[in-house]
Amino acid sequence: MSVRINLLPHREERRKRARQHFAVLAGLTAVIGLAIVAAVHVFNANRISVQADRNAFLKSEIAKLDKQIDEIKKLKDEIAALLARKQVIETLQADRAQTVHLLDELVNVMPEGIYLRSFKQRGLRVSVVGHSQSNARVSTLMRNIESSPWLEKPTLVEIRAITVDKKRVSEFNMNFGVKRVQAPAEKAAPGKPAPAAPAAKKG
């Protein structure tokens, strides 16, 4: 007599348990995956936040540096303007001293027998027109200008004979230069005597 055993319920139970086990594993895998994704997201968000804070700090420092650079530029512009004003004042003082030296030196270099009719100065160049008793006295005037500590480079433009008050004289037109007076910074250092200017020769 043969015995028959029905295994269908047992197999169905095994399949059910297998499906439950798979579902549990799938759920755990999904949970772990979500946890990993969340952790990565939080990590990246934290790094982004830290980098954003660094960027904000850098921008703030750059803005401060830009402001300081602008202030430095303004200070440089103000210093340049002050130096320019100082230079203008020194130039005006030097030119004023030059005028005094020029007039004083003209008296020193002018030989006897010469007098000036007109006098014009443009910058460091001077033009004079005068009368002389002879051409030799004009030559003496040019030599005196060349040896002067304040005047230089005499150039005779024209000389011609004319009659003034029934007297025969030479009318001359001459140009010469005025030496630039040294600025205080260019003068001799304190304690060192400045070299004496050579005496002008008179005719």
Give an overview in words:
The chain is of the alpha+beta class and 203 residues long. It has two domains: 16-109; 112-181, Alpha-Beta Plaits (2-Layer Sandwich). 56% of the residues lie in helices and 21% in strands. It has two helices and four strands; from the N terminus they run αββαββ.
Give a brief rundown of this model.
This protein has 203 residues and is an alpha+beta fold.
Across the major sheet, the strand order is 1-2-4-3
% residues in beta strands: 15-25%
Number of domains: 2
How many strand elements?
Answer: 4
Rg over alpha carbons: 51 Å
The number of distinct helices, counting runs of at least 4 residues, comes to 2
**How would you spell out the order of helices and strands?**
HEEHEE
The biggest sheet amounts to: 4 strands, antiparallel
CA-to-CA gap between the ends?
Answer: 170 Å
Q: Average the pLDDT over all residues and give the rounded result.
A: 79
The coarse silhouette is rod-shaped
Unreliable stretches, pLDDT < 50, 5 or more residues?
A: 183-203
Structural class by helix and strand composition? alpha+beta
The percent of residues in helical segments reads 55-70%
